[in-house]
Write a structure and sequence with these properties.
With 178 residues, the protein is mainly alpha-helical. Helices cover 66% and strands 7% of the residues. The chain contains 6 helices and 4 strands. The strands form 2 sheets. The protein has a two-stranded antiparallel sheet with strand order 1-3. Strands 2-4 form a two-stranded parallel sheet. Helix 1 runs antiparallel to helix 2 and helix 4 runs antiparallel to helix 5. The radius of gyration is 18 Å and the shape is elongated. It starts with a strand and ends with a strand.
């Protein structure tokens, strides 16, 4: 079964954030002008995603994946027990990760901007906050990628492909949860 899930704005946001964050974290010198430009691009992307989370349709809306600890616990129990249920939109654990990453990127952006101001230039705790948030984001991204690969294999739904094409291809026998 094939379901249209991710609209172009969600997909472009996702891969643009991946690219800009990876470039800033791995390749671009932190003292360079490009690092700042990419940081502002990331702020713009997060702003767009926040707007689209309220103004978009379907699975793009934050209302379609509220943070829900009970549902996340149920999904963890599914994983532990081997029960395979396919979520059409974001999974409950995936939703928590999305909110984590958005908040972490906002902290990175705010602390990065603060470091460029006269008030906070050279202030150690701001630099430490920025670096800790980047480290947290990197760990979160690694966990996110591992979870996406694991869930793709476990459920039979190619999640990376869905984030490229916009369509989730769900096995016929799958138990679907909305």
């Amino acid at each position: 079964m094939r379901f249209k899930i991710w609209d172009p704005i969600v997909r472009v946001f996702h891969w643009s954030l991946v690219s800009a964050f990876a470039a800033n974290a791995l390749f671009v010198p932190t003292a360079s002008a490009l690092h700042l430009v990419l940081g502002y691009l990331i702020v713009g992307l997060v702003g767009l995603r926040l707007i689209w989370g309220f103004a978009g349709r379907g699975y793009a809306r934050f209302a379609s994946f509220p943070p829900d600890l009970r549902a996340a616990t149920e999904q963890a129990a599914d994983i532990a027990s081997g029960r395979r249920r396919v979520h059409l939109g974001h999974t409950p654990l995936g939703a928590l990760m999305i909110y984590n990453i958005l908040l972490t990127v906002a902290v990175i952006a705010l602390s990065g901007w603060m470091m460029t101001t006269l008030t906070f230039w050279g202030v150690r705790w701001v630099k430490d906050l920025h670096e800790m948030a980047v480290t947290w984001a990197e760990m979160s991204v690694l966990l996110h990628v591992a979870a996406v690969l694991w869930e793709s294999r476990r459920t039979g739904v190619n999640l990376p492909k869905a984030m490229v094409t916009g369509y989730k291809e769900v096995p016929e026998a799958a138990r679907i949860v909305e």
